Amino acid sequence: MSRQRLTVVLSQAPGKHPAKRSLEESVAAALILEPGLDVSIVPNLYDLGPDHTGRLYLQGVTGDLLVFSWHFPRAAFWLLDRMGVPGKMGESLIKPASDEDDTETEPPEGIGSGAAIPDRHIYCIDLREKHNAEPYLAEVRRIAAECRDRRDEAQRSRPAAAAPLVQLGFGLTPKVPELPAFTPEQLLAPPNRRWYPVIDYSRCTNCLECLDFCLFGVYGVDRLDRILVESQDNCKKGCPACSRVCPEQAIMFPEYKTPAIAGAPVGEISGLKIDLSRLFGGEEKDAVSQAIAERDRELVADGRQAVGTAVGLAKRQPASPAAAKDDLDKLMDDLDALGL
Is-contact 189 229, C-beta < 8 A? Predict the structure, then answer.
């Protein structure tokens, strides 16, 4: 049975930025006074290790969940999924501006996370979108009402329940599970900073290019040969190279400085949501060459030999069969025709 109250979790920003802390405190203070909510605060979502109390708390939430963090919603949702907190993606009205107008016309058909999806929704909201608590509080109220309406509708459509079992004169009714009882001090225990990739399984097609490209043992496959982040702590801090070679933008580093790698909404190429400086001969010719340079730098720092294009790019070599032109190819053809 799902919990009847919406659980709201605020994930703090790493560090002690005064403006961010002030916003977190004002949002938390407003939420605590709001009826019908279970409210908790945990450290930076991305840094929560397997044994951290904040992560154990999140894994214990069985009903609808709303998470405030300093990450793009797509990154936060799939970060929760890989932490063992799955659900259906809930739609928030507070979203990145780039997500309000254009969307992909034909997004890839992802393989899905493979985990059993419970009958609950997870809403992720980026605290960078608004600068005061009121818009967030209004959205929490809207989402809480939406969750109540959905539960009420499910209850109305459910067949009439059979009479409760009776044994020795006592009625036996299901008990709603309680959230783990952790103190605020336990939830807010400072975690170590971490760096690792997060896979968006709604986009991942299991091409395994990341497995071929990464030479640090970060990726592996499960018993069904589905890609997974097997040894996340092998990842080299600050290196996003595997994200650059992913053909479907399914690999995210939630705290990287470039939005496209950090989990920003993926827009259509025809909407020019691309880095045009790269098209006109910037410092790096393309994302793959930049990824190769980043990987070689980490190999050398590890005392190993740089490999350049010799390893992990077999699917991208010139001898490979030519694929049908996509929107980016057509855009480049149009630019060539204009003599640019």
Answer: no
